[in-house]
Design brief:
- The protein is an alpha/beta fold and about 300 residues long.
- Helices cover about 45% and strands about 20% of the residues.
- The strands form three sheets. Strands 3, 4, 5, 6, 9, 10 and 11 form a seven-stranded mixed beta sheet that branches. The chain has a two-stranded antiparallel sheet with strand order 1-2.
- Helix 1 packs across helix 2 (about 20-25), helix 2 (about 20-25) packs across helix 3 (about 30-45) and helix 5 (about 100-115) crosses helix 10.
- The radius of gyration is 22 Å and the shape is globular.
């Protein structure tokens, strides 16, 4: 059974703010401090420090967070499995998906997998990479398919596939001169996802490798919806960088045009992540193996 002080610690890890943790748990801030102090005494190590007035986890705190997060998640799953065994209800499985990975790569094979397993009842949460990592750490989802960057040492993960980020424009878009490199596009209006999006993070990482930034473009528009970005680009409002899988239908139909650029392709992996050390690892690994096999059949 999960100790209430463990819940306090994990909430503080997620919010990185004692006041916000107290508000979420409906307790006082001194109570949060007391719970953390109790755990620090029990484990003989400081769990949090302040750096430049910001709360940060110590190395010991990170180790404890990873271990306790997995324990809390497993306890929740165990309780649900026991209740299901009594009632015969379907087994709940909470899956997180970033928008591009979910809509264009995972939804179809996951649906096929669920058809094969009527004993599973999926709950799907969508969001940015950072948001889904927070839900995973909090035990609110069991696993996630993400396209952004994450600490690979902190999670158990597998690669679903590697996807290419391509520059797209309207079919009739006219450049001042045909671009050969990303630098040649800086006078264009760039339409991109919001901060926290995996697609944006991959683009920013690729730009940084060439000493470029999003701010280097003459104009930029932030749009949170992938569908709206595609409509804007089709209407020649600007250019964008999107995963090839997300625009394959539009490229084939001719409503969008890929802009070929010299240099190495911008590629990034779509990963399936879950908490390390879970007693339900074999079940989650089996889910991934089946989804990956079904996804490969659709390529």
């Amino acid at each position: 059974m999960q100790d209430f002080r463990v819940e306090t610690f994990l909430t503080a890890c997620r919010t990185m703010n004692y006041t916000r943790a107290a508000e979420e748990l409906s307790i006082t801030q001194p109570a949060v401090s007391q719970h953390i102090a109790h755990l620090e005494k029990a484990y003989g190590a400081r769990l949090f420090d302040y750096r430049s007035k910001r709360l940060v986890l110590t190395e010991a705190g990170r180790l404890l967070r990873d271990a306790l997060a997995t324990m809390a998640h497993d306890e929740r799953m165990l309780r649900e499995r026991m209740a299901n065994a009594q009632s015969g209800a379907p087994v709940r499985l909470a899956v997180g998906m970033t928008l591009t990975a979910g809509e264009h790569l995972v939804a179809a094979p996951l649906a096929d997998c669920l058809v094969r397993h009527p004993e599973l009842q999926a709950v799907v949460r969508s969001g940015g990479t950072g948001e889904l990592l927070g839900l995973l750490d909090a035990g609110e989802i069991d696993c996630a398919f993400i396209e952004g960057f994450f600490d690979k040492s902190a999670y158990k993960w597998d690669l679903l596939r590697t996807e290419r980020l391509v520059c797209v424009c309207a079919p009739g878009h006219e450049f001042a001169r045909e671009p050969l490199t990303i630098e040649d596009l800086l006078d264009e209006r760039l339409i991109l996802r919001e901060r926290g999006s995996g697609t944006r993070a991959v683009l920013e990482h690729a730009l940084a490798a060439q000493n470029l930034t999003v701010e280097g473009f003459k104009r930029a528009s932030v749009v949170e919806s992938l569908g709206v970005i595609k409509v804007f680009v089709e209407r020649d409002l600007g250019i964008s960088f999107l995963y090839e899988a997300a625009v394959r239908r539009e490229l084939n139909a001719g409503t969008l045009r890929a802009v070929p650029l010299a240099g190495p392709a911008i590629e990034h992996g779509i990963a399936f992540i879950r908490l390390a050390g879970s007693v339900f690892e074999s079940e989650l690994q089996g889910l991934f193996d089946e989804v990956r096999a079904l996804a490969d059949e659709t390529v």
